[in-house]
UniProtKB/TrEMBL annotation:
The keyword Magnesium belongs to this UniProt entry's keyword annotation: no
Keyword Nucleotide-binding: yes
Protein name listed in UniProt: AAA family ATPase
Listed InterPro entries: AAA+_ATPase (IPR003593), DNA_helicase_pif1-like_DEAD (IPR010285), P-loop_NTPase (IPR027417), PIF1_helicase (IPR051055)
Alphabetized Gene3D superfamilies for the sequence: 2.30.30.940, P-loop containing nucleotide triphosphate hydrolases
Keywords: ATP-binding, Helicase, Hydrolase, Nucleotide-binding
Recorded GO MF terms: DNA helicase activity
Organism the protein comes from: Microbacterium saccharophilum
UniProt lineage: Bacteria, Bacillati, Actinomycetota, Actinomycetes, Micrococcales
Highest taxon in the source lineage: Bacteria
Record domain AAA+ ATPase: where: 23-197
Amino acid sequence: MVPVSTPTLSPEQEALFRLIEDTREHVFVTGRAGTGKSTLLQHLAWNTHKQIAVCAPTGVAALNVEGQTIHSLFRLPIGLIADSEIEQSEPARKIMNAIDTLVIDEISMVNADLMDAIDRSLRQARRRRAEPFGGVQIVMFGDPYQLSPVPPRGDELRYIQDHYRSFWFFDAQVWAGPRADRGAIRSDGLLDLGRVGAPLHIRELRDIHRQSDPAFKAMLNAVRHGIVTAEIADALNTMGARTPPEPVDGEPPIITLATRNDIVNRINQRHLDALTGPVQTARAEISGDFGRGDTYPAEPELQLKVGAQVMFLRNDIAGYSGDGPRWVNGSIGTVTRIAGGSVRVELDGEEHDVEPTVWERFRYAYDPGSRKLTRDIVAEFTQFPLRLAWAVTIHKSQGKTYDRAIVDLGSGAFAPGQTYVALSRLTSLEGLYLSRPLRPSDILVDRDVRRFMAAVRAAAE
Ligand SMILES: Nc1ncnc2c1ncn2[C@@H]1O[C@H](COP(=O)(O)OP(=O)(O)OP(=O)(O)O)[C@@H](O)[C@H]1O
Ligand SMILES: [Mg+2]
């Protein structure tokens, strides 16, 4: 596999890389959007000398970091796990015994129950029941001010309420002792979340690489913390609430970030219908077990027309040859030709012939011969790395970077962090188009995140 080229790490990223590499401490790497968390994770995956397994809570997030989903890595049942027996196959046990470090991306979407199941699985498999995570180092990446776990309902909700302070990963029992002990700050500045739990090093990356304008960074920070003053709202609305320009030939088109799937599909379909010319459908080739439809990395049936606005779903592989990538995950262009098994896409004034690519679903296995973990391909999904991109959901835009976007909050943001995720995708305020002015009710901050991060900041002072 080709290594992903990442930017040279900044000093604070480098320091964290060393902390992870040179110690066995559990680390939670957090920081505002665009501080280079994912960049650091990629660098770690390619440069560590440890035996690591990389995983993530959702299929899409796992594909992003070329890892496995948490559920498949640990062979966990779907839904609440609570204190039910965890069945482990021999291969799963071997994997858990082979790793030094478990890396989890998008940790904000992991709930407390799952965090504790990971702990229990590792203790059980490694037969080190008294040690948190059976002695494995846990390294987590994410920003709790962005999108949260799926909220539990019904019996699950009742269970969580009875056993946990909140459903967030940071309130898992493994980190926590008796409730009264929570948030104790030790003399060395470490936030010790409890007497019997594992100590967790929380490190915040501070330098933002995605945006450079200090005024825009300050506005985003206010949205993140739910402290938007009338003045800030005014500045965002005066600048942002305006009609987007008509598409200009040679200029990249503008994407809409919307709250719900139905809005996104409607916008994409409306634009596709408005184009003259025939629709062409590209069917994905799927081999092996690629899971259910909602875990597909691209459309199983991609409908395209000449003139369609599309987004790339992967980085350009051919770019590693030396000229630099022709596109990256998130680049937006226009279809100019569909023929002969390829789709021609105009991007920044240049045309490229795009071929189908293969997404590989990985599974870790243990090789007793070399006593090393191997990563096997268990399924493949072949499709053009493109999707219609007049609009995407804000949830799907998490992690991405855009120069220009229309933010459509429709009838209102409904999840904590949603508006922050949308606005923080933009590299500058000049690229922001709001389809309607922001309302105070669009800005939602989770109460438990506020509480946890306040304790983190107090510990850092
Ligand atoms: N050390 C660096 N030097 C230059 N550019 C960097 C550096 N680190 C990250 N970047 C760039 O900054 C942008 C944001 O980085 P990245 O996506 O890793 O941030 P993130 O913290 O994961 O953001 P989010 O919370 O939105 O997922 C990317 O375009 C990335 O290439
Ligand atoms: Mg990221």
